[in-house]
Design a protein that fits this description.
- The protein is of the alpha/beta class.
- Helix content is 22%, strand content 17%.
- It has helices at 4-9, 63-70, 95-104, 119-126, 142-151; strands spanning 23-25, 41-44, 77-80, 107-108, 135-139, 155-159, 172-175, 183-186.
- Strands 1-6-5-2-3-4 form a 6-stranded parallel beta sheet. A two-stranded antiparallel ribbon has the order 7-8.
- The longest helix is centred in the middle third of the chain and has 10 residues, at 95-104.
């Protein structure tokens, strides 16, 4: 259970813009098309963004995406921050985090909380040489990934379509025409 989520969602009452992304992309495959020249670190969500929910390896179509990110000059630091692998749910042995690191070659943050409440742990893991505005947080959830990015002063990228299509009761629709950097809202 994500106990920090209700607390952080209350922050939306005075400032609903905290759940708005800076960029919206259809899938993780489109991430290298964004202007990344000032980005020093990319924080990636795992479940339904980088990998299928519960999987401990990269969704195969996204291996080229990660290769493109690693080929940038200078290459940004990549960090996986998940509410499953590396979280309190994976503690104390962090077996999921270790398996994910081995299969991806990307460091997985070990943290005691869940997004959006682990922003301080993210910044600490990235080190003092990385400024908040140089961090790009990429995820498929407005209320956790995008909210965390905005609360920590980072750039937020919302991945509109996850690895597994959303079959929930809430349908995502475009706000503002659906083109370019449109924001998608739940209806």
């Amino acid at each position: 259970m994500n106990l920090s989520l209700p607390y952080h969602l209350l922050k939306l009452l005075p400032n609903p813009a905290l759940c708005l992304p800076h960029h919206t992309i259809p899938s993780l495959a489109h991430l290298p098309t964004l202007p990344l020249h000032r980005i020093c670190a990319i924080v990636l969500d795992k479940d339904n963004c980088l990998a299928a929910p519960g999987a401990l390896s990269i969704h195969p179509p996204y291996t080229k995406t990660l290769d493109a990110l690693r080929a940038l000059t200078p290459p940004p630091e990549l960090l996986i921050v998940s509410n499953s692998a590396g979280s309190a749910a994976d503690a104390p042995a962090f077996k999921q985090a270790a398996a994910l690191e081995e299969s991806t070659g990307i460091r997985v943050l070990r943290h005691g909380g869940k997004k959006p409440g682990c922003a301080a742990a993210v910044m600490a893991a990235l080190g003092s040489g990385v400024r908040r505005e140089q961090v790009l947080v990429v995820g498929d959830r407005l209320g956790t990934d995008v909210l965390m990015a905005n609360l920590m002063g980072a750039r937020a990228v919302w991945v509109r379509e996850g690895v597994v299509p959303d079959r929930g009761l809430i349908k995502k629709t475009p706000f503002g025409g659906g083109g370019g950097d449109s924001v998608y809202v739940d209806e």
